[in-house]
Write a structure and sequence with these properties.
Elements (H helix, E strand, L loop, with lengths): L2 E7 L1 H4 L7 H11 L4 E7 L3 H13 L4 E5 L10 H8 L2 E2 L1 H10 L12 E4 L2 E6 L3 H23 L10
Parallel strand pairs: 1-2, 1-3, 3-6
Antiparallel strand pairs: 4-5, 5-6
Helix pairs in contact: 2-6, 3-4, 5-6
């Protein structure tokens, strides 16, 4: 995969109250997987701003957009709602995999979604750095396959495609 856009949502980090640890951790991991172009944005938990960035980045042709944060039960945790307004087709299996295989019982409290907007896959990750890293590691093989099939960059293959 050549390009991934990472959007980290945090009111406090975007105001400079603490340092965003998720973005550098995920960027380094993605680059270690051979992703050449990892772009990122840090923004407050704002559904309208997130929706606009998702739409813009998908229109620019990003194969994969990862969001980090805003998937919990807090009143400003609206990442899944913004994502659903952008995607055309939901792909629930990836989030089901993450919730089922995640190492922490609170993984089941995630309201994260995954779906397709045009030829872009969008996946919501947790805001906790360690959890987000675990989630991308679990989902990565499926994401690579999904992006490849969606963009017809390789053979489809497999029993479910």
């Amino acid at each position: 995969m050549e390009r991934v856009h990472l959007i980290t949502l945090s009111d406090r980090a975007s105001r400079g109250e603490y340092q965003d640890q998720s973005t550098p951790l995920l960027k380094a991991w993605l680059q270690g997987q051979g992703v050449k172009d990892v772009t990122s944005a840090l923004m407050p938990d704002d559904a309208e701003a997130l929706e606009a960035d998702l739409r813009r980045t998908a229109a620019e042709g990003a194969p994969l957009i990862l969001t980090c944060g805003g998937t919990g039960f807090g009143p400003r945790d609206t990442t899944p709602e913004a994502t659903r307004r952008v995607i055309e087709r939901e792909a629930p299996g990836l989030c089901e995999l993450i919730r089922a295989k995640g190492g922490h019982p609170l993984a089941f409290a995630s309201r994260a979604v995954c779906g397709i907007a045009g030829r872009t896959v969008i996946l919501n990750l947790s805001g906790r750095p360690a959890a987000a890293l675990e989630q991308i590691q679990l989902a990565w093989p499926v994401l690579v396959h999904a992006v490849s099939v969606l963009r017809k960059e390789g053979p489809a293959g497999g029993p479910c495609t």
